[in-house]
Amino acid sequence: MTMFSPALLDRYLDFKQVTSVSDPSANEFSASNGLASYPLKITNVMTKWRLASLWNYDYLGNAIGTHDIFVAEQKNDPPTFFKTTLSTFIQQVRSNEEGIQYSHFSHHLNSSLVLDYEIPEYFSCWYKKLPKSEQKLILSWIYMGTRYSYSSLHVDVYGTSAWNGVIIGKKMWLFYPPDQRSVLYNGEVNPFKPDYKRYPAFQEARPLVCIQSANEIVYTPSGWWHCVMNLEPGFALTENFINAINFEQVKMDLVAMGASKAVNKLEALVKL
Ligand SMILES: O=C(O)CCC(=O)C(=O)O
Ligand SMILES: [Fe+2]
């Protein structure tokens, strides 16, 4: 079995870095061939949100700490899962105990925490235009974990795009364009512990790399493969969104999963 070694992370620093931009305009972001075509790091936006000065482990614990969450123990391969309360897990992450543990949850959506951020126009989501009672898909999560916890290689759900803002911690992102699917073995390979014997063509894969610190937002375009390593313990807020840029892909994915009603409603709403 291939083991994870932190030294491997340093080697990824030699690859091309994701572009960084300060507080772009909606037009700079969405214009054809604009910033939205590639992964992007966005600075000086999150610092304008209330959460930048409010959110920390205690604030989160006070707001939603009593809720149960599922935690993946990633030291085990394949990972095992256990259930605990968010407050207990916060203590575990802060005390830096043994283990590599990662959890994502959406309890913020039913709390006043959602009042602490205002997403820029270019991240606005068509799905949120539907009446609340018809919004069945969950599209926002908080990710919390220890050092070296990670998200494995994937493209985002339903063909959506996403933004991700780090509140506490530091992440390394590896991005691969949609056309590298075959050398990624459809996402089976783990770039953080690559098994070249089993996945020889992965040696041809060339990632874009992004180091994301607190108060920086990372944008993932629809269809881009990515995996994410937490270089430091912490937590981040992420939302996936549907817009004019990704709608054709989202439409195919939603129809394929039997949600054509939602597609029809979205189309009617945005009057395509
Ligand atoms: O681990 C992370 O922060 C990345 C999460 C992610 O890629 C996702 O929610 O789709
Ligand atoms: Fe993702």
The first-level CATH class name: Mainly Beta
Mean pLDDT: 95
What's the CATH architecture name? Sandwich
SS strand fraction: 25-35%
The radius of gyration computed from the alpha-carbon positions, rounded to a whole number of angstroms, is 19 Å
Tally the beta strands: 11
Structural class, judged by helices and strands?
alpha+beta
CATH superfamily: Cupin
Describe the sheet with the most strands. 11 strands, mixed
Overall 3D form: globular
Number of domains: 1
Low-confidence segments, ≥5 residues, pLDDT <50? none
Looking at the structure, the CATH topology is Jelly Rolls
Count up the helices. 7
User: Helical proportion?
Assistant: 10-25%
The distinct bound ligands, ions and cofactors come out as: 2-oxoglutaric acid, fe (ii) ion
Q: Could you tell me how far the N terminus lies from the C terminus, measured between alpha carbons in angstroms?
A: 50 Å
Written as H for each helix and E for each strand, in order along the chain, the element string is HEHEHHEEHEEEEEEEHH
